[in-house]
Structure prediction request, 332 residues.
Amino acid sequence: MRLLVTGGAGFIGSNFVRHVLDASEHTVTVLDALTYAGNRASLDGLPAERCSLVVGNIADAPLVDRLTGDHDAVVHFAAESHNDNSLHDPRPFLDTNIIGTYTLIEAARRHGTRFHHISTDEVYGDLELDDPHRFTEQTPYNPSSPYSSTKAGSDLLVRAWVRSFGLKATISNCSNNYGPYQHVEKFIPRQITNVLDGVRPKLYGAGRNVRDWIHANDHSRAVLTILEQGVIGETYLIGADGEEDNRTVVETILTLMGRPADAYDHVQDRAGHDLRYAIDSTKLRTELGWRPRYADFRSGLAATIDWYREHEDWWRPQKAAAEARYREQGQA
Ligand code: NAD
Ligand code: DAU
Prediction:
């Protein structure tokens, strides 16, 4: 297949492109606006005969129409993705996550192009720490932040286009990803690069919030599986049983990096901070046979620390601006 991958210069998109080139014979065109979160260097070294980059906006209807018509499938990762930014300036989240997705599905319906929509577990809201239930495909939508509400809106647009116009789409909702090429604004890379810089990690509030961690490579393998074998109109939850509270994650990073486990600071909590996410991925595992390969979070984290140690040239140009934003928000 000829794949059009939106947001392919971002964290998960670039991991997905590498996986596709390794594991299949598909070719890839990346459509990416190279916002502050996109990085051309994340695609360095990929074979030019199978992978190219178009710098452009997913809300640019003529561009999107032309590219969609030239491809067999669209895999849609592009988004404004950071909750903290959405609390301070929601507008880009509406433009990209809602209008951008609308622009893509209109083109996909005109051309009859297969469409896979990447979404998040945050559309389901949060769980109590002692809730025995996890999110399933049947959990009602209940998003908390401007980011997650725009992702929920985009999911609902895709569902409506499937039902009303026969759009050939699938949707996946995944939990928190970690791994190489993640922007230094996000929790794990922020703390790793802080420690590398001799700065103490910053924990929001008491740090009891739980996230369900999955390696970006396991997410990529799940997306390719759904693209190739998923049933049109269906939603699949992606998760690797990786629940950890934020305090434990910071303490593990510090220990793996040879620092005292308590050498971190508590900073102002995030407004409306979701307490816990947890994914039940039984449907994906039983219907499509997917299994995560990074079963041990601690060793995945150690490999991620090594990657940031060895790729300072990749993350250094973004670090000062990311920390300046946190200082403005009182979270530095
Ligand atoms: P990211 O912020 O690292 O990358 C987003 C990419 O989209 C960037 O390359 C950016 O330049 C591009 N982009 C933004 N606006 C654009 C526009 N208008 N037109 C074209 N390109 C644009 O994000 P990520 O963490 O890789 O997330 C990718 C997708 O996965 C998002 O849809 C996100 O909601 C979803 N998701 C992320 C996670 C996670 O833990 N990071 C978990 C589940 C789902
Ligand atoms: O659940 C999937 C979602 O995971 C994706 O949809 C989002 O795109 C992705 O950014 C991520 O959202 P979170 O808000 O969970 O991720 P973030 O890395 O921003 O924060 C993870 C947790 O760590 C969260 O509870 C907030 C906390 N945190 C974050 C930062 C940046 C801190 O304690 N300190 C920090 O410095």
Observations:
- Residues 81-83, 120-122, 175-176, 186-187, 190, 202-204, 209, 211, 246, 270, 277 surround DAU (ligand 2) (CB under 6 Å).
- The longest strand covers residues 114-120.
- Residues 212 and 243 are 4 Å apart (CA to CA).
